[in-house]
Amino acid sequence: MFSSHTSRGLIGGVAVESLETRLGYRFSDRELVRRALVHPSWRHENGPDGTDNQRLEFLGDAVLSLAVSDLLFSRLTESPEGELTRLRARLVCTGRLAEVARDLGLGEAMALGRGEQATGGADKDSILAAGFEAVLGAVYEDGGFEAAMGLVTRELARELDEAVLHGGRDPKSALQEQSQREFQVTPRYRLAAVEGPPHEPHFTAEVEIPGHFRCQGQGASKKEAERSAAAAALESLAAAAGESAPEDGSAREQP
């Protein structure tokens, strides 16, 4: 179906096996994962008889929504419908799915048209997010919902754990609420460092509760690093709440 040069090495067995290792899933029908990584721009340049990943993307989008909904429903048993809907939207947004795709190396594996290749299509959020949804659709077609759920759980584990830890709230929102309640100040964020090669940067962000303390966090994007810093600050606040009475002799109210 594809020639080796247009598929950018994905057709070789070693490349497929490498991707399967990163996915944590072995395909019975490897044609599915090959199809999942064919962008429409490649098909448009290589004739109408080929196929692309749009149908699998459609399927993967629905599977992703169900999987995330099921995970949130089972883990956040006290959260209302509106909160679950908001959190699901954050977990499946284009930017977050693109981060997952980068971690899996999908951009390098995708078959793109010459135009998209020339304009950096392999690192565009929209293409990467669609690619991840198509791969998820391929996993579902090959192994069923349990296999697809496993992939979603692995790739969104950190965000799901944060949701449970903070009662479904985004760490930045939770920190802002607690900071304003306890200290009457708003957290301040700054980018502390960017390391690594341009195609795989690693960000360090710092959050400060003015007049009180600072915490750092790391991530594959500035937004992810800020969330990590906020989560670290929340953990510091929780630890402080469990300590003995402060120096002025006052004590926190015990439940």
User: What is the CATH superfamily of the largest domain?
Assistant: Ribonuclease III domain
Query: Which CATH first-tier class of the largest domain would you pick?
Result: Mainly Alpha
- Rounded to the nearest angstrom, the distance between the terminal CA atoms is 65 Å
Structural class by secondary-structure content: mainly alpha
Number of domains: 2
Which architecture name of the largest domain does CATH use?
Orthogonal Bundle
Largest pleated sheet: 3 strands, antiparallel
Topology as H/E string?
A: HHHHHHHHHHHEEEH
Beta-strand content bin: 5-15%
Radius of gyration: 22 Å
How many β-strand stretches? 3
Shape: globular
- Measured as a percent range, the helix fraction is 55-70%
Number of H/I helices: 12
**Overall pLDDT:** 84
Within the largest sheet, what's the order of strands? Answer: 1-2-3
What low-confidence regions span 5 or more consecutive residues with pLDDT below 50? 1-14, 244-255
Q: CATH topology of the largest domain, what is it called?
A: Ribonuclease iii, N-terminal Endonuclease Domain, Chain A
What do these coordinates show?
This protein has two domains: 13-165, Ribonuclease III domain (Ribonuclease iii, N-terminal Endonuclease Domain, Chain A, Orthogonal Bundle); 171-241, Double Stranded RNA Binding Domain (2-Layer Sandwich). With 255 residues, it is mainly alpha-helical. The N and C termini lie far apart (65 Å). The chain has a three-stranded antiparallel beta sheet with strand order 1-2-3. α2 (30-36) packs across α9, α6 crosses α9 and α11 (171-182) crosses α12 (222-241). The chain has helices at residues 13-23, 30-36, 40-45, 54-75, 81-91, 94-104, 106-109, 114-118, 125-155, 157-165, 171-182, 222-241; strands at 188-195, 202-209, 213-219. The model is unreliable at 1-14 and 244-255 (pLDDT under 50). 34% of the residues are buried.
